[in-house]
Amino acid sequence: MRKKVTKAVFPVAGMGTRFLPATKSVPKEIMTLVDRPLVQYAIDEARAAGIKEFIFVTSRGKGALEDYFDHAPQLEQELRKKGKTELLETLQSTNMDSGAIAYIRQHKALGLGHAVWCARRLIGNEPFAVMLPDDVIAAEKPCLKQMVEAYEETGGSMVAAMEVEPSRASSYGILDTSEERGDMVKVKGMVEKPAVDEAPSNLAVIGRYILSPNVLKNLNKLKSGSGGEIQLTDAIAQEIEQGRDVYGFRFRGQRFDCGSKAGFLQATVAFGLAREELRDDLSAYLQSISQIDRAAQ
User: Fold this and answer.
1) pLDDT tens per residue across span 47-66
2) Contact 130, 12 (CB under 8 A)
């Protein structure tokens, strides 16, 4: 019987330099998208997919991230006293049970592969998910849940994939595919940030993975790859070389790259418009801006 995916690794050790000066004191992962930190969207998605153990790979200066998931008894007491039941429930939904969450330090910025490798002792010999909070995905059924359901049929390793403009292939890990299976493709190779004229396809890997524990063994042997970092895609590509199955999963939903300022702003507008209590005011404001732009032209 195939083991269930109950552990997820969240690599959150990056310094967030694209969001300076805000990230001088605030970890990027707790910057708010509407009224929830980026990392809360990832946690909610993981919970919906059946994840029970949450492993954060952090770095120096991420104490506020750890505090975010702690209980706030004084604040809860004040909300209870004032009868603010809805706010109290919202607050309590962010709490993590004791023992459900663990933090590991990545002392050197050696890449995503190295960050995942840092969590190896907590993962053990089980399949596990990797989630990058920078990638926020709006979907009717959460992206990782879609992947877990597909994984239960296929096993192996699986990466979330989406089509990108060929000119942007050099910003992603790109899949070399061999077989179409509905939402999934069989992968025969992976290339990390290829030159535009060397990309095997326009199917790019984004920040959701379900991985075999064998990937950790591959990471043990890897030296630095593209950009002088230890690349997770190189370790997954070794699975293919060793005869194990790797799949690309075309998820249903819209992905926002909240690691960039433009993507963060786009996500803010999209998630704001999706909220019933914000939609009318935000729509009216966006329409007024559009009218001003047209008049200026």
Assistant:
1) 999 999 999 999 888 888 88
2) no
pTM for this prediction = 0.89
In the chain, where do the E strands start and end? Answer: 7-11, 32-33, 36-37, 53-58, 101-105, 128-131, 135-138, 157-163, 173-181, 184-192, 203-211, 246-250, 254-257
Q: Beta-carbon neighbour count of residue 92 at 10 Å?
A: 12
Looking at residue 191, what is its pLDDT? 83
Partnered with residue 12 across adjacent β-strands are none
In this prediction, residue 210 carries a pLDDT of: 97
Residues 124 and 272: their CA atoms lie apart, in Å, by 40
d(CA 57, CA 239): 23
pLDDT value at 225 more than 60: no
- Nearest Cα neighbor of 135 from 229, 263, 46, 7 is 263
* Residues 6 or more apart whose Cβ sits within 8 Å of residue 296: none
Q: Are strands 101-105 and 184-192 parallel, antiparallel or unpaired?
A: unpaired
